[in-house]
Description:
- The complex is a heterodimer of chains A (448) and B (348).
- Chain A has helices at 2-7, 127-137, 149-153, 177-184, 186-199, 214-221, 244-252, 272-281, 314-321, 379-383, 390-398, 402-407, 419-423, 430-447; strands at residues 29-31, 37-41, 51-52, 59-60, 65-68, 77-78, 83-92, 98-106, 163-168, 204-210, 230-235, 267-271, 290-296, 304-309, 328-332, 339-340, 354-359.
- Chain A is of the alpha/beta class and 448 residues long.
- In chain A, helix 4 (177-184) runs parallel beside helix 6 (214-221), helix 5 packs across helix 8 (272-281) and helix 11 crosses helix 14.
- The longest helix of chain A is centred in the C-terminal third of the chain and has 18 residues, at 430-447.
- By secondary structure, chain B is mainly α.
- Helices cover 57% and strands 0% of the residues of chain B.
- Chain B has helices at residues 17-39, 41-64, 75-86, 93-107, 121-132, 134-137, 168-173, 184-191, 197-202, 214-227, 233-252, 260-265, 269-276, 287-307, 314-331.
- At the A-B interface, helix 1, helix 7, strand 15, strand 16 and helix 10 of A face helix 1 of B.
Amino acid sequence: MKLLNFLRGEAFARGVHPPQHKDTAAMPISRLPFASRLVVPLSQNVGRPARSVVQVGQDVVRGQPLAEADGFVSAPHHAPASGVVEAIRLHPTSGGPWTDSVIIKVHPGSPQAVEWEDPRDLSAMDADELIAAVQRTGIVGLGGGVFPTHAKLRVPKEFPVDTLVVNGCECEPYLTSDHRIMVERASDLLAGVAISRRLLGNPRAIIGVEDNKPDAVEAIRALLPADGDVTVETVPTKYPQGAGEMLIKTLLGREVPPDSRSYQVGAYVQNVATLASMGALMPRGRGFIERVITVAGTAVARPGNYLVPMGTPLRFLLEHVGAPADAVEVIFGGPMMGQAVACLDAPITKGVSGILVFHGQDLAPRAERKSFPCIKCGKCVESCPMGLNPSMLGMLATKRQYDAMAETYRLGACFECGSCSYVCPANIPLVQQFRVAKQVLRGSEKAA
Amino acid sequence: MRVEIHSAPHIKADNGVVKIMRNVVWSLLPLCAFFIWQYGVSALSSLIVVTAACLAAEALFLQLGRQSGDLGDWSAVITGLLLALTLPPGFPLWMGAVAGFIAITLGKAIFGGVGHNLFNPALVGRAFVQAAFPVAIASYTPSFMPGRLTEFIPSSLAWPFMAPQDTSAWLLASHLDGVSGATPLARWKFEGVVASSFDLLTSVSGHMAIGPSPLLILLCGGYLAVRGYLDWRIPAAVMGSAAALATVMFAIDPHHYPDPLFVLFSGGLVLGAVYMATDMVTSPVTPKGMWLYGALIGVLTVIIRYSGGLPEGVMYAILIGNAATPMIERVSQPVAFGTAVKRKEKQS
Lengths: 448, 348
């Protein structure tokens, strides 16, 4: 413990320090009202889409299952509000593609109380039953991974996990939803930690929190059990500290080798929002129907941390927070890795941790976005947390030498954190080039 | 409501190419002022003429097309100012114009413009005039001459393609004792006289034939390094390796070799280390590569000075370093995350 204190302040190598803009950090979680219609896509996560279990015209109550998991890597969905199933049809999603969705016409005055639950005694369950109970909640990785949480919890027996790393870094600028969850829902978080530890063979748990959130550290410390198996560690505020590999490196000094999973170095990473949802929902057998989302950005009149019912149309939320109707950029997630939204009718789904809205000119003036040739300043090399050479990768991408990118320069290790593009003085869209290269390589793999 | 779609990341650090270049120009202005203080109107005219020639060449090639960059990116100004600072202050202005034109043409434009050149353009220009005008490039004049702020060094105003006027008569006419047009490096090499390294560092005492103060260069470079517009590793490696080799040689034979401080502060070593070797385009991108590259330049400089025919070796050392950069990068790729030999784990 002493040695760990001594080593505190040492983080993973490289990375960047974008301005934080955590203006909503002190804003308590507040509830977003129901929209008149909610749209629940059957496919919201990694894995197979869920199968609808309701009929058009059927009345549903808040919390009732709408769709069941189809296989192990799949998650069910529940009704976020009481209403009537108006249609089950294709509906656009934030990225553009249309997907099968259950559309609920919300009853006026639909109650906030959850009217459907299936409580079971968790303490009597064995591991398989507990994993099935996690699956019934429909929880997926809320940090943006959207991998079904129950499936991630099934760690192969040959890899003993010695540490549950709880990710409370929230390193993306603007986002504060995890921060508020740690401050306001620390008991739910610790309940989720306890359930996860049971499933992982009772490893120690370390909650890693960036040192810009001292109130979150305080709130959790006040509730920690006395046995010392669960601890809170502050880690340096540096992007991308919240990437699982980077947090493992900072907390444990271990590096996850390429093409490996974190459990292969004895660590298992879970995000605080995911664990807090587990802790809140599982004891009562409830489904995942709402999540905390930071709404921020220069074009938002009423920024804050909102408890948003799943399936809320983006347009409804934007009107509620006072986003203007002129040209804007809407981003799901943080400004470093988030995805620009193509369709304002898209519903808000389980993977959305933040919604940022900007006037077009606010982020980076368009004139400044003119690209220069690479001047080989090396700033990207000094920013890449994975120790890659983005400068070289970018030059190879321009020449379409995708195989060399993958084989010699380890393109596969890039997790698109955006640090290289962020620092590039020449405005070269490095990450975009890498995405294209990966897509081309995946295409040629399939063809082969 | 109209939405705009862009690829992540949606935010950018405030450090564009143009901003970096502009800051390098700002940091060069004190050096230019010092140079003008040392040599008066000749230095001022040289800075203006060489820079104008660089800009003219840049404009010409941008007009011809298929070049990257633009006239407003300040890169040609940097080339011009640096080139002028490495030329003798009384260098005929028309030769300075040739140097500037060649620097942009052969140093940059033929490779395709900003970002594509292999060699430092200013040094390509200087190497060209070193070969074309060997007498003029070796004709230095003493600093702080009494009439410098009102009259030209006679050689500055030579007509194109005519032999420049000999400055020895002009020197005699100044009636200053012990004044010589030889640089401290030339005096060491050919006369065995080693100048005081403190005087060299400040460059304000006496009438030595030297460029702007190394101390000032280090201050200006330090500003760039602090702002993140210059990688400190390169000057550290150049000066460190040159000093190390000079120390070894000095320890072996103190009568034959000068002391390491003289080696550091004489000639163009500091200017080359801080402003020339650090040219981003022509130096390695990897931190390990920067150390290797800098060390190569420092060692080569000392070797050329000690065993070459010329008293100064910084220019060729850097050009060789530029040439070696692709090779150096190949052997200095960063270690990818998770592939290092397993280090000791943190204990808890």
